[in-house]
Specification:
about 30% strand; 3 helices; single chain; alpha+beta; globular
Amino acid sequence: MDNIVLNERYRVERKLGAGGLGEVYLAQHYFDPGRSSLARPVAVKILHANANEYARERFEHEKEALSRIRHPYVVGVLDAGVLADGRPWFVMEYVEGLTLREGMMRLKQVEPEARFGLAGRWVRQLGQALSAAHAVGVIHRDLKPE
């Protein structure tokens, strides 16, 4: 998948990870394909090649749900399309940083009195994001620290 271009705007650079429904790639979004200075990183999720109809429906549901939620702690959907082989994809904001699991592992290195403050902030942020989802009728049933 590396170095393919989607919709003449998104150059896929490298795989970031994979889950049950698809792979996520780092890509560059070129606002003006002729000017590389007008680019920003984005994440592109592409449905697995061997996905069944149920997985395809869940993928579409995920895209639709993310597009409805507007909150600083929830990545937004920016664009979507279909590959030549029929697999759908969508583009999300790319957020650089640690996963919650990585942050939790690093808590062991933090002074004990600071751990509760950090953990509390993360729980509060997670709760705010879930509240934003619930406010638009989205119920997340698969929370994980990744």
